[in-house]
Amino acid sequence: MSVITAGARDSGVVAWRNLLNIKRNPDWLLAGTVQPIMFVLLFAYVFGGSLGGAQYREFLIGGIFVQTVAFNSSFTVIGLANDLQKGIVDRFRALPMSRVAVLLGRTTSDLAVAVLTVAIMSVCGLLVGWRIRGSVTDALLAYAVLLLFSFAMSWVGAFIGLISRSVEVAQSAGLLWLFPVTFISSAFVSAENMPGPLRAFATWNPITVTADSLRMLFGNPVRVDRLPPDAWPAQHAVPYAVGSALLIIAVFVPLAVARYRRVASR
């Protein structure tokens, strides 16, 4: 059996183990399902009337999708930190298995959770008036871009989970950095309304561009109260979104693997 085949098999076993843990602890899915639904209802019906009504609701869903999968990376953070604290990683070390399997299994299982979350969010979006107005091919591409971004964010979460000294620290570290990165973007409002430095950051923010790429592919409004910006990321949203996700993976996979080897060698 080749190294790649063995690694894929071991990763599948670890991923299945993680999914079984969710089955035994269904409250883990609460934040990943109820929280985004609350955001949809809050922004669509509390703020939506003053931000654009029905048109804003279609604009909103792309941002909610991206925010949700970004926040789901906290599951990776807490899951790895919990396994480290309980000594489960030490047990994995004693088994004849691939070292990469622990990380790849964690990120793969969290990707499966993201698929479920996105499905629930799609139904919720349809109920509040969101519609897919693009072609079937464009819609499938949009979901593929979203899940690629989710997979990339889970590797960021894996690295943060491995450098966290406890589950309590991981709970804070896994979410603290996400709030400014998510809200300084066009996930909920147009970035063009922000002050200069924030606007520049939001323009190149992968969350902004990923949300814009979903809106383009779904056939939803890219902006509600103004024309789309002419900046390069906005004009090339889909390739920039894919490229930024691949760059995040390329950076954080080696970082996470290197950190895991340091932790596992102690």
TrEMBL record:
A GO MF term: ABC-type transporter activity
Keywords, sorted A to Z: Antibiotic resistance, Cell membrane, Membrane, Transmembrane, Transmembrane helix, Transport
Keyword Transmembrane helix: yes
Pfam families the UniProt entry points to: ABC2_membrane
Transmembrane segments: 28-47, 59-81, 111-128, 140-163, 169-189, 238-258
Record-annotated ABC transmembrane type-2 domain positions: 27-263
GO cellular component: ATP-binding cassette (ABC) transporter complex
Compartments where found: Cell membrane; Membrane
Membrane topology: Multi-pass membrane protein
InterPro entries named among the record's database cross-references: ABC2_TM, ABC2_TM_bact-type, ABC_2_transport, Nod_factor_ABC_transporter
Single biological process term from Gene Ontology: response to antibiotic
Principal subcellular localisation of the protein: membrane
PANTHER family: NODULATION PROTEIN J (PTHR43229:SF2)
Annotated family: Belongs to the ABC-2 integral membrane protein family.
Protein's name in the database: Transport permease protein
Lineage: Bacteria, Bacillati, Actinomycetota, Actinomycetes, Actinomycetes incertae sedis
